[in-house]
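Appendix B, example 12.
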Amino acid sequence: MKKHSARVAPLSACNSPVLTLTKVEGEERPRDPPGPAEAPAPAGAEAGGRAGRRCWRCSRARLRKTFWGVAVVLCVCSSWAGATQLAKLTFGKFDAPFTLTWFATNWNFLFFPLYYAGHVCKSAEKQSVKQRYRECCRFFGDNGLTLKVFVTKAAPFGVLWTLTNYLYLHAIKTINTTDASVLFCCNKAFVFLLSWIVLRDRFMGVRIVAAILAIAGIVMMTYADGFRSHSVIGIALVVGSASMSALYKVLFKLLLGSAKFGEAALFLSVLGVFNVLFITCIPVILYFTKVEYWSSFDAIPWGNLCGFSVLLLTFNIVLNFGIAVTYPTLMSLGIVLSVPVNAVVDHYTSKIVFNEVRVIAIIIIGLGFLLLLLPEEWDVWLIKLLTRLKVRKKEEAAEGGADLGLGPQSKSRRARPSFAR
């Protein structure tokens, strides 16, 4: 396994400050000797120079990682908002949310081939597809990806994946994309609650407050349209989609733990295979029972279907593998930033009414989402920051008092050298 992790490391640590510091320590010193009047630098000064170069290289690495973070945020935001808007547009010509879900999920098969292409481009030691596949299969156990493992571990997640996307797409038919996107942000609060109950994660008061804000936002969003039947159904569908997404993430941690990039790519490709083998019968049944019926295959907007699938695939790729180039918190910001994008589009394309209740609900849910992004040690960092500020103020006050105590004598002493010149 050590060999496997070493091969994956270049994808996840290409901008790591540790690698940058190693390069700085190995840099050559200037070959020219010091000038006649220049004394050799003491050991302390050389160590200070090394520390300064290390800080400079470290800051450059962080700046590069932040730059990539901005790019990832824009990609997540645009792909998620674009997929939502394109799905809404597709339902005007092709009213089949489950068929659209099935069609888009089939594209998950491309995860592992795309990962292997990245492995060939980035890794120093090339491996064949078979070797790479066998190493990634160890994620499922010592026996690899057997039929029993496929049914017991992959199938439940395939069902949850399908339910998450189907409920979200079905909700878009009844409510606007702004409400759907902001309500789906509540899945992070549901993840925390389930992790606290099932995984026994650390209790954090600020996250409990965030969960309360999310629930309050859901209630206010339901009240925004006056508890009309279609709005209540649509909101319930989005909340169900967010719940399925949270259950998917918590069960993954409980049953499978954490996965490396290759293992995650293989797992998502396996979900695509499960969708083809076991879910294909459902769209066929819905077609012949005329629940999701279309007149002919020529009437299907294939451009919209393929565009939605590509955007959803891009969103999942960036969300799962963007951690290789930036911070996870920045990636999560892309989801909440898609809300104002959808709001602007809805303002010009639909009859959405941004009354006070809806705006307050959006702000409350967004605030709860941002609170959930705080790290576990945020209170310790805040205390340290406040302590440093207090110490700095005391030092500045002490220096000001010392300067006043010296009076004009200190000024005259400081003025003598310039006066003598």
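Residues 77 and 334 are 4 Å apart (CA to CA). The two ends are 72 Å apart (CA to CA).
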